Amino acid sequence: MPRGLGQLTLLHTLTDFLLPGDDSRPKNCGGLGEFNRLSKLRGSLRIEVKGKMEDVVAESNAANLKEKDSLVLLVLVFAGKESDEILLKEPQPSLNLQSLEIRGYWSARFPSWISRMVKIVGLRLFDCAGCKSLPALGELTSLKRLEIGALPIVEYTE
């Protein structure tokens, strides 16, 4: 995504955001911080992380996804790196989110905020090869659709 996208503060629709790793990110490419001021986003958003990032905490904190109350579907696609856990832990989406999909997540555990997403009606977890446990699915009282695939070493639910 081009640097400066975050200045489009009235933007309602952004369907895909590709985040290249530090090693392949052009200087004119913005990071997750571009989302900070995009509080009017609505509908669906897909964020794909393509590589390793040095300052993962700052990058994920800058997204400010909690303030995107009109997003209904969030798809997070990871590159399968060890830093995925930090990247997913921080950008907790709004509690109004209705559907969440996570792909390619590498960490052993999903972040605890997933279990607090009580309005979620759809949850999809795919290709999370390093995950040993699932979030506390029993806490998701509105959940109607659950799809899980390619989580080969899952042993238990939190």
Describe this structure in words.
The chain is mainly beta. Helix content is 8%, strand content 25%. It contains 2 helices and 8 strands. The strands form 2 sheets. It has a 6-stranded parallel β-sheet with strand order 1-2-3-4-5-7, with no helix packed on it. A two-stranded parallel sheet has the order 6-8. The longest helix is centred in the middle third of the chain and has 6 residues, at 56-61. The mean pLDDT is 86.
Salient structural properties:
158 residues; mainly beta; 8 strands; 25% strand
In short:
With 158 residues, this protein is mostly beta strands. Helices cover 8% and strands 25% of the residues. It has helices spanning 56-61, 84-89, and strands at 16-19, 42-49, 70-77, 99-103, 122-126, 133-134, 145-149, 156-157.
Biggest pleated-sheet summary: 6 strands, parallel
Helix residue percentage: under 10%
Mean pLDDT: 86
Structural class: mainly beta
Oligomer: single chain
Number of strands: 8
Give the SSE map.
Layout: E1 16-19, E2 42-49, H1 56-61, E3 70-77, H2 84-89, E4 99-103, E5 122-126, E6 133-134, E7 145-149, E8 156-157
Parallel strand pairs: 1-2, 2-3, 3-4, 4-5, 5-7, 6-8
